[in-house]
Amino acid sequence: MARSGRAGCARPDPSWLSDLYWARTIGAARTRNIDGARNNVTKYRESIRALLAGRGPDARIPPTVRIAQLEAEGWIAFAEGRRDEALRTLWQAATLEAEEVGESVVVPARETLADLLIELGRPAAALREYESLLKAAPNRFNTLLGAARASMAVGDRSKARAYYQLLLAVAAPDADREELRDARAFVNGR
Asked: The domain at 8-120 falls in which architecture?
Protein backbone atom coordinates (compact mmCIF):
# COMPACT_ATOMS: atom_id res chain seq x y z
CA MET A 1 0.00 0.00 0.00
CA ALA A 2 1.35 3.41 -0.93
CA ARG A 3 2.00 5.93 1.80
CA SER A 4 0.65 9.46 1.63
CA GLY A 5 2.64 12.55 2.47
CA ARG A 6 1.12 12.73 5.97
CA ALA A 7 2.72 10.56 8.60
CA GLY A 8 0.71 7.48 9.42
CA CYS A 9 -1.92 7.97 6.68
CA ALA A 10 -2.10 5.17 4.18
CA ARG A 11 -3.48 5.85 0.73
CA PRO A 12 -5.62 2.95 -0.52
CA ASP A 13 -4.26 0.87 -3.39
CA PRO A 14 -5.96 2.09 -6.61
CA SER A 15 -6.38 -1.45 -7.99
CA TRP A 16 -8.33 -2.50 -4.90
CA LEU A 17 -10.43 0.65 -5.15
CA SER A 18 -11.19 0.05 -8.81
CA ASP A 19 -12.57 -3.42 -7.94
CA LEU A 20 -14.63 -1.95 -5.12
CA TYR A 21 -16.13 0.84 -7.23
CA TRP A 22 -16.76 -1.54 -10.13
CA ALA A 23 -18.75 -3.87 -7.87
CA ARG A 24 -20.64 -0.97 -6.31
CA THR A 25 -21.47 0.45 -9.74
CA ILE A 26 -22.93 -2.81 -11.00
CA GLY A 27 -24.78 -3.50 -7.73
CA ALA A 28 -26.33 -0.06 -7.74
CA ALA A 29 -27.25 -0.27 -11.42
CA ARG A 30 -28.80 -3.73 -11.07
CA THR A 31 -30.97 -2.46 -8.23
CA ARG A 32 -31.89 0.61 -10.29
CA ASN A 33 -30.04 3.01 -7.98
CA ILE A 34 -28.98 5.26 -10.84
CA ASP A 35 -27.42 8.00 -8.70
CA GLY A 36 -25.40 5.44 -6.75
CA ALA A 37 -24.26 3.79 -9.99
CA ARG A 38 -23.21 7.10 -11.53
CA ASN A 39 -21.35 8.18 -8.38
CA ASN A 40 -19.50 4.88 -8.16
CA VAL A 41 -18.61 4.76 -11.86
CA THR A 42 -17.10 8.23 -11.47
CA LYS A 43 -15.00 6.94 -8.57
CA TYR A 44 -14.14 3.86 -10.63
CA ARG A 45 -12.81 6.02 -13.46
CA GLU A 46 -10.81 8.13 -10.96
CA SER A 47 -9.29 4.96 -9.48
CA ILE A 48 -8.26 3.79 -12.96
CA ARG A 49 -6.62 7.15 -13.64
CA ALA A 50 -4.77 6.81 -10.32
CA LEU A 51 -3.74 3.28 -11.25
CA LEU A 52 -2.26 4.51 -14.54
CA ALA A 53 -0.66 7.61 -13.03
CA GLY A 54 3.09 7.52 -13.12
CA ARG A 55 3.27 4.76 -15.73
CA GLY A 56 4.37 7.12 -18.45
CA PRO A 57 2.74 8.63 -21.51
CA ASP A 58 2.39 5.28 -23.28
CA ALA A 59 0.45 3.64 -20.44
CA ARG A 60 -2.64 1.88 -21.71
CA ILE A 61 -5.66 0.58 -19.92
CA PRO A 62 -5.29 -3.20 -19.59
CA PRO A 63 -7.99 -5.23 -21.40
CA THR A 64 -9.40 -6.51 -18.11
CA VAL A 65 -9.95 -2.95 -16.93
CA ARG A 66 -11.58 -1.98 -20.24
CA ILE A 67 -13.88 -5.01 -19.97
CA ALA A 68 -14.87 -4.07 -16.43
CA GLN A 69 -15.49 -0.51 -17.57
CA LEU A 70 -17.77 -1.75 -20.36
CA GLU A 71 -19.67 -3.97 -17.91
CA ALA A 72 -20.25 -1.05 -15.56
CA GLU A 73 -21.36 1.21 -18.41
CA GLY A 74 -23.66 -1.51 -19.76
CA TRP A 75 -25.45 -1.98 -16.44
CA ILE A 76 -25.83 1.78 -16.02
CA ALA A 77 -27.39 1.96 -19.49
CA PHE A 78 -29.78 -0.81 -18.45
CA ALA A 79 -30.71 0.99 -15.22
CA GLU A 80 -31.38 4.16 -17.21
CA GLY A 81 -33.69 2.30 -19.57
CA ARG A 82 -31.31 2.25 -22.54
CA ARG A 83 -31.76 -1.48 -23.10
CA ASP A 84 -30.29 -1.73 -26.61
CA GLU A 85 -27.20 0.21 -25.57
CA ALA A 86 -26.83 -2.00 -22.48
CA LEU A 87 -26.98 -5.11 -24.61
CA ARG A 88 -24.50 -3.75 -27.19
CA THR A 89 -22.08 -2.71 -24.45
CA LEU A 90 -22.15 -6.06 -22.65
CA TRP A 91 -21.78 -7.91 -25.98
CA GLN A 92 -18.72 -5.77 -26.60
CA ALA A 93 -17.33 -6.65 -23.15
CA ALA A 94 -17.92 -10.38 -23.70
CA THR A 95 -16.34 -10.26 -27.17
CA LEU A 96 -13.33 -8.30 -25.94
CA GLU A 97 -12.85 -10.73 -23.06
CA ALA A 98 -12.98 -13.73 -25.42
CA GLU A 99 -10.48 -12.14 -27.81
CA GLU A 100 -8.06 -10.50 -25.37
CA VAL A 101 -8.22 -12.25 -22.03
CA GLY A 102 -9.76 -15.70 -22.19
CA GLU A 103 -11.54 -16.81 -19.06
CA SER A 104 -12.18 -14.21 -16.36
CA VAL A 105 -11.05 -15.01 -12.86
CA VAL A 106 -13.78 -12.90 -11.29
CA VAL A 107 -17.10 -12.53 -13.08
CA PRO A 108 -16.92 -13.42 -16.76
CA ALA A 109 -18.34 -10.78 -19.08
CA ARG A 110 -20.34 -13.51 -20.83
CA GLU A 111 -22.03 -14.29 -17.51
CA THR A 112 -22.97 -10.65 -16.99
CA LEU A 113 -24.28 -10.59 -20.56
CA ALA A 114 -26.42 -13.66 -19.85
CA ASP A 115 -27.67 -12.05 -16.65
CA LEU A 116 -28.69 -8.98 -18.65
CA LEU A 117 -30.48 -11.15 -21.22
CA ILE A 118 -32.50 -12.69 -18.37
CA GLU A 119 -33.38 -9.18 -17.15
CA LEU A 120 -34.43 -8.28 -20.69
CA GLY A 121 -36.80 -11.26 -20.82
CA ARG A 122 -34.68 -13.22 -23.30
CA PRO A 123 -34.05 -16.52 -21.48
CA ALA A 124 -33.28 -18.57 -24.62
CA ALA A 125 -30.47 -16.18 -25.55
CA ALA A 126 -29.30 -16.13 -21.93
CA LEU A 127 -29.23 -19.92 -21.86
CA ARG A 128 -27.01 -19.98 -24.96
CA GLU A 129 -24.57 -17.60 -23.27
CA TYR A 130 -24.53 -19.55 -20.00
CA GLU A 131 -23.96 -22.80 -21.91
CA SER A 132 -21.17 -21.24 -23.94
CA LEU A 133 -19.45 -20.15 -20.76
CA LEU A 134 -19.93 -23.57 -19.15
CA LYS A 135 -17.81 -25.11 -21.92
CA ALA A 136 -14.81 -23.11 -20.68
CA ALA A 137 -15.72 -23.07 -16.98
CA PRO A 138 -17.96 -26.10 -16.33
CA ASN A 139 -18.32 -25.71 -12.58
CA ARG A 140 -19.03 -21.99 -12.10
CA PHE A 141 -21.71 -21.73 -9.44
CA ASN A 142 -23.45 -18.62 -10.79
CA THR A 143 -23.29 -19.84 -14.38
CA LEU A 144 -24.85 -23.19 -13.45
CA LEU A 145 -27.51 -21.38 -11.46
CA GLY A 146 -28.21 -19.01 -14.35
CA ALA A 147 -28.40 -21.91 -16.82
CA ALA A 148 -30.87 -23.75 -14.56
CA ARG A 149 -33.06 -20.67 -14.18
CA ALA A 150 -32.90 -19.86 -17.90
CA SER A 151 -33.84 -23.48 -18.67
CA MET A 152 -36.87 -23.15 -16.43
CA ALA A 153 -37.83 -19.88 -18.09
CA VAL A 154 -37.83 -21.52 -21.53
CA GLY A 155 -39.82 -24.47 -20.18
CA ASP A 156 -37.09 -27.12 -20.31
CA ARG A 157 -37.52 -28.75 -16.91
CA SER A 158 -35.24 -31.70 -17.69
CA LYS A 159 -32.37 -29.39 -18.60
CA ALA A 160 -33.08 -27.29 -15.51
CA ARG A 161 -32.95 -30.46 -13.37
CA ALA A 162 -29.59 -31.41 -14.91
CA TYR A 163 -28.12 -27.97 -14.20
CA TYR A 164 -29.49 -27.93 -10.66
CA GLN A 165 -27.98 -31.38 -10.07
CA LEU A 166 -24.61 -30.13 -11.29
CA LEU A 167 -24.95 -27.07 -9.07
CA LEU A 168 -25.61 -29.29 -6.05
CA ALA A 169 -22.66 -31.50 -6.97
CA VAL A 170 -20.17 -28.61 -7.03
CA ALA A 171 -21.48 -26.93 -3.86
CA ALA A 172 -20.21 -27.92 -0.45
CA PRO A 173 -22.53 -30.59 1.00
CA ASP A 174 -23.30 -28.49 4.07
CA ALA A 175 -23.76 -25.20 2.17
CA ASP A 176 -26.99 -23.51 3.12
CA ARG A 177 -27.79 -20.88 0.54
CA GLU A 178 -31.26 -20.07 -0.66
CA GLU A 179 -30.29 -20.99 -4.22
CA LEU A 180 -29.21 -24.45 -3.06
CA ARG A 181 -32.38 -24.98 -1.05
CA ASP A 182 -34.37 -24.09 -4.18
CA ALA A 183 -32.23 -26.45 -6.28
CA ARG A 184 -32.71 -29.31 -3.80
CA ALA A 185 -36.46 -28.73 -3.73
CA PHE A 186 -36.64 -28.74 -7.53
CA VAL A 187 -34.48 -31.86 -7.92
CA ASN A 188 -36.50 -33.64 -5.23
CA GLY A 189 -39.75 -32.70 -6.96
CA ARG A 190 -41.10 -30.31 -4.34
From this structure: Alpha Horseshoe (1.25)
